[in-house]
Amino acid sequence: MYLDCQVYDINGELQISFDAVMAYYQTGLLEHVFAELIHALQTTMLKPRCHIGRDCRYPEHGDVNHSLTIVRADPLKSFPLTELQQAYAFGKTAYGGEVATQVYSALRVKHLDLARLQAALAKLIANHVMLRAVIGLEGQQKILASVPDYRIKVDDLRLAEPEQQQAAIAKIERDMLMRNGPLGDWPHFELRVSLLDHEQALIHFSVELLIADALSLEILRADLCRFYQQPEADLTPRDLSYADYCLSVKHYEQTLAFQHSQAYWQQKFSTLPSGLHLARLNSGGHIGTVRLDAVLTEWPKIKQYAQSLNVPPSVVLLTAYAKVLSAWSDGQAFSIVIPSWQRLPVHPDINHIVGDFTRLAWLPVNPQQTLSFTEHVLAVHAELQRDFAEAPASGLSVLRKQALKPAQRRSLKFPIVFTDLVPEHESKLPAEFSLTKTLSRTAHVDIDNISTDHGDTLGLHWDVAEAVYAVADVELMFKEYWGVCGGGQYC
Question: What SUPFAM superfamilies does UniProt report for this protein, alphabetically (predicted)?
């Protein structure tokens, strides 16, 4: 968000202010717009006894209806970005660090037919309209009716030595994660192929979270493979579009429930501690991502323990994460950001469309607090429930306003993230395809804790901003987290 117009009723008088990223606009432009706005209000809208907000009260939390009314979008028209999309878009600009928040995936397949893959990708782009989205500088997005043919780049590594092949693949991964096309350009994804030998190939697929959340990525990977295996498969029409959802959220912002949510977030952010401060090697930009991996064999026990407490298993993992980070902290309170991929059940098709539906929570952690592990799990769960109950109001606009206040003394940066587990979904990869690797890169995030559920085991992954922290320190923290998760305190 580059410009926020705020309107207040103060003792019956209307107060209007602009909060803006001044460097983003041409000199004098905002002053002109503000003057025109005031003139328009004075001449056409204001009447002698008109007051804003009179006789308005915030109901108690339990009295508020947070249901979302579906508003149908015109597929030919632009529609607004969500608050998180605005943050992703700002991160792509020079003022936001020039980082495209995205996820990279590698799919291994045997006997790849490049022509079939090219056709499958074309069908994928036709089926999921957000792959044809362009994001404008003005905070709007538009679905292109047609796009140029996307030609898949192929790297032939069949004659390379194993070390050379690994180095080439690592460079492809890095280049794709570092890719940041300008706003207004298409596409917001990239697909490449590496031929490894006479039998094996790797499909490299990166997608910006600006157009697709984690559940969307699973849908895209599965549909790409399905269209490859079944070239004659029909496209799947849906009764709900992402544009419908975005307009519905915009409409929701006019409701009393949204105003209640804003009050909730204002109260929370007024006291929320900033992110964890660890000893840093470099305060510069994010130059790459290093992944740490482990396998947790105690996953079934954790799920049983979570079930006994009536909490999601991810809450147990988050509690373990907070415990380890507390041990490495300076003793001061800090906060962890939690993106969740659970979508609001507003329509039967909601879990089948591609877009960004991310819900956010902020967990304050007090290292001085003395709770048993179980007590801590229950407290963490209660905190998340309170935040997620405010959806679809994300709280990001309130956080931005809080950060812009002249009296704000706390740093409201949150570089430590815990990414929630992706919900169970019917989209599965065919047997001939295997997901061999994923990597993520997020603007202004130093450590992202990501888990992948494999049924009887859990993959533990930390995506760490390269050259920000001492490698040995982060590796030790990760080892401690693995130990706490498997240590049996949940038994």
Answer: CoA-dependent acyltransferases (SSF52777)
Paired with 80 in beta bridges are 140
- State the greatest distance between any 2 C-alpha atoms of the chain, in Å, as a whole number: 81
Evaluate if residue 21 carries a pLDDT over 90.
no
Q: Among positive and negative, which fits the CA dihedral 115, 120, 123, 129?
A: negative
Which tokens hold the place of 228?
């490859």
- In the beta sheet, which residues pair with residue 289? 465
CB 437, CB 106: distance < 8 Å: yes
- Enter the DSSP assignment of 45: I
- Name the β-bridge partners of 153: 192
In order of 226, 297, 304, 359, the CA distances from 219 in angstroms are 10, 27, 28, 18
Question: What's the angle, vertex CA 294, arms to CA 293 and CA 299, rounded to 5?
Answer: 135
Q: Which of 472, 309, 307, 475 is nearest to 382 (CA)?
A: 309
CA 164 to chain centre: 34
Chain centroid, CA 344 distance in Å:
15
Domain 79-229 architecture: 2-Layer Sandwich (3.30)
Confidence of residue 408 (pLDDT cuts 50, 70, 90): low
Q: Which CATH architecture has domain 255-485?
A: 2-Layer Sandwich (3.30)
For the chain, what is the radius of gyration of the CA atoms? 24
DSSP string computed for 458-469: EEEEEEEETTTS
CA distance 362 to 341: 15
Report residue 157 as tokens.
């590594």
For residues 60 and 479, give the distance between their C-alpha atoms in angstroms, rounded to a whole number.
44
> Which of 336, 309, 112 shows the shortest CA–CA distance to 204?
112
Quick count: other Cβ atoms within 10 Å of Cβ 235? 12
Coil, strand, or helix at residue 287? coil
CB-based contact 414:363 (threshold 8 Å)? no
How do residues 224-236 score in pLDDT, each as one tens digit? 999 999 999 988 8
pLDDT at residue number 425: 67
Per the structure block, which two tokens stand in for 119? 């056709």
Q: Which residue has the tokens 């432009």?
A: 29
What's 429-476 look like in SS3?
CCCCEEEEEEEEECCCCCEEEEEEECCCCEEEEEEEECCCCCHHHHHH
8 A C-beta contact, residue 191 and residue 122: no
Contact 37/6 with Cβ under 8 angstroms?
no
The helix/strand/coil state of 230 is coil
pTM as predicted? 0.83
The yes-or-no answer to whether 79-229 and 255-485 have a common fold is: yes
Using DSSP bridges, classify how beta strands 447-453 and 416-418 pair: parallel, antiparallel or unpaired: parallel
- DSSP for 145-177, written as a single string: S-----PPEEEE-TTS-HHHHHHHHHHHHHHHH
Amino acid identity of residue 220, one-letter, is: L
Q: Which two tokens stand for residue 480?
A: 């401690």
